[in-house]
Give the backbone structure.
Amino acid sequence: MSGAGQGKPEGTRAVNIRKIIFWSHLVVGVATGLVVFVMAATGVLLTYEAQITRWAEHRSVTVAPG
């Protein structure tokens, strides 16, 4: 008996494993990239906190009581 017509060809298994590796690598890479991006963004905000606060409050007006 030959393997023809009895299930998937042998090359299909390698393609499935390759797809699994590709998608898992993509998902892990994107997730890692998001974590690094958030860390970088919060680091920049912490570094320039004084300048950002000064810029945001430069038009604040104080009203004298009474």
In short: Residues 30-57 form one domain. The CA atoms of residues 30 and 36 lie 10 Å apart. Helices lie at 10-47, 49-56. The chain has two helices and no strands.
